[in-house]
Amino acid sequence: MTYRILVFYGSYRSDRMGIRLADYVVKGLRARGEDVELIDAKAVGLPMLDRMYKEYPPGSAPEAMAALAGNIRAADAFVFVAGEYNWGMQPGLKNLTDHFLEEWFWRPAAIVSYSAGRIAGARSNFLWHGTLCEMGMVVISSTLSLGPIAETLTANGEPQGHAGQHLDGAFPRFADDLAWWAEAARSQRARKAPPY
Ligand SMILES: Cc1cc2nc3c(=O)[nH]c(=O)nc-3n(C[C@H](O)[C@H](O)[C@H](O)COP(=O)(O)O)c2cc1C
After folding, report:
1. C-alpha separations of 169 from 28, 32, 67, 179 in Å
2. Is the CB of 92 under 6 A from ligand 1?
């Protein structure tokens, strides 16, 4: 069975590194036959939150926001690529995420984190967990944490060295868990239509 999976990444920095992990996850899930799309918050370019998508009168939301709302609703699962700024989340990804609420409901989400150092984005990973639960997603327990990202993935998102080998070793179980929950949520949505 193929699942529609959106991979979200939200650094706006010119010299951003987390795109390596986003690319790695996209490639890895595609190699398993999933239907995967990278949602790069910088490319989507939503404004700083003013109105949530649902607060716009029907048909009047900015085009990129409306398209993304439809894309989220059509998905089976999400992956959030979480970098860490000063022990916190990256604001670009949080801003994108906050524009939606009901669109996220009834689907699993996985968090993959990274940082320049050995802490591997652990604090941001932890923060995203609560936020995604609050937004109606089922956060799966499997996660990937990379640190230092530059020693783990090349600029093309290819694993390198011992850390890269470890990542490749952990990925199948991570992807299996996400697929299991994607199937469970999809079959439950089909059995009983979500109320929102
Ligand atoms: C403003 C800022 C704050 C940072 N704070 C942390 C931090 O709290 N913990 C950490 O492990 N790395 C921190 N870093 C280093 C980041 O992990 C590293 O720069 C990483 O590549 C950022 O992700 P990005 O390149 O995708 O933007 C920080 C970097 C920036 C630019």
Report:
1. 12, 15, 35, 17
2. no
